[in-house]
Design a protein that fits this description.
It contains 12 helices and 8 strands. By secondary structure, the chain is an alpha/beta fold. α2 links the parallel β1 and β2.
């Protein structure tokens, strides 16, 4: 059983929901990422998504675009991010890590080489934002050969037949994008999220994580009430940017946000909130 499956299985057995924070690898500097990953786990993260910096992150809003720019100023590459995961694994062998990014840097390395090196580093899954499932055979084959889970995005506008196609090639979990637009968008409608999550659950037994528009503990708990996992990215990356010159202050601010989300999710799960 993979670390991702173990994670979701454990949360399900406990009657709790998973919390999945996102950070960009190498933001604001390469030496800050591993410490932040451990900080996220200490604050209550169940799984960590780490962004692979890319020069044209078209699915991301200005907050994560800026994070990519900060990382790229230091020349952070995909292999640098793999080295960060490998360092993280020296102390943490249980928390799942999913890489999130774009196809071009993976193609530059080569699907089989990337998959082999990612598995060796301790990666558990890969979410390639701009790769449609219809064109994913070669990458998916390479990932599965190394027991890496292909993670996919599902949008509010995705038709049922396409949801079915995505879920046939997905492993680990699927990521429902709760809002139209880019990361960091606003105006979350949880009732609408609940309807779409049920549509996804009708065609797959994979856990459903929901992200985009989750800003604070309250929205995290509301989303957690209807999904298997809450994914939060831009709210964390904003705090990292605000304390870019003080890594300890960044960890403190991020830890406070994530631990608040963890408490809110757990309280909602037992009916306190």
């Amino acid at each position: 059983m993979s670390r991702i499956e173990q994670c979701f299985g454990a949360r399900r057995a406990e009657g709790r929901k998973a919390l999945i924070p996102y950070i960009t690898g190498g933001d604001p500097a390469p030496d800050a990422t591993v410490a932040m990953m451990h900080n996220l786990v200490d604050a209550g993260a169940d799984l960590i998504e780490v962004g692979m910096p890319f020069s044209d992150p078209m699915a991301d809003g200005p907050v994560i675009q800026a994070a990519c720019e900060r990382a790229l100023v230091h020349g952070t590459s995909v292999r640098d991010v793999l080295a960060m995961v490998s360092e993280f694994r020296q102390q943490d062998t249980t928390t799942p890590v999913v890489l999130m990014g774009y196809l071009n840097p993976i193609e530059q390395i080569g699907y089989e080489t990337f998959s082999r090196e990612a598995a060796a580093a301790g990666v558990d899954g890969v979410l390639c934002v701009d790769l449609p499932p219809e064109e994913s055979h070669d990458l998916v084959t390479a990932l599965l050969a190394e027991n890496l889970a292909p993670i996919w995005l599902i949008a509010p506008t995705t038709r049922r037949e396409r949801i079915e196609a995505i879920c046939r090639v997905a492993r680990g979990y699927v990521y429902y994008v709760s809002l139209k637009g880019v990361t960091g968008a606003d105006s979350l409608d949880v009732d609408d999220v609940a309807r779409h999550v049920e549509q996804i659950r009708a065609v797959t037994e994979l856990p459903v994580g929901v992200g985009f528009g989750i800003r604070d503990a309250e929205t995290a708990a509301r989303v957690g009430a209807v999904a298997d996992a809450t994914v939060v990215g831009s709210a964390i990356v904003k705090l990292i940017a605000a304390h870019a010159d003080d890594p300890a202050a960044a960890r403190s601010a991020v830890g406070e946000l994530v631990s608040g989300m963890r408490r809110a999710l757990d309280e909602r799960a037992v009916g306190i909130a």
